[in-house]
Amino acid sequence: MGEDAEITGLLHDWGKGDAKAGDALTPLVYDELHRCAERLFRHENAGHTLQPTALVHEAYAKLINVDVSWQDRAHFYALAARMMKRLLINHANARNAAKRGGDDIQVTLDDSNTPGDSTDAILLELTDALSALEKFDERKAQLVELQYFGGLSVKEIEAVTNLSSATIGRELRFARAWLKDQLAGNDQVTQEA
Question: Fewer Cβ atoms within 10 Å of its own Cβ: the N or the C terminal residue of the chain?
Answer without folding.
Answer: N
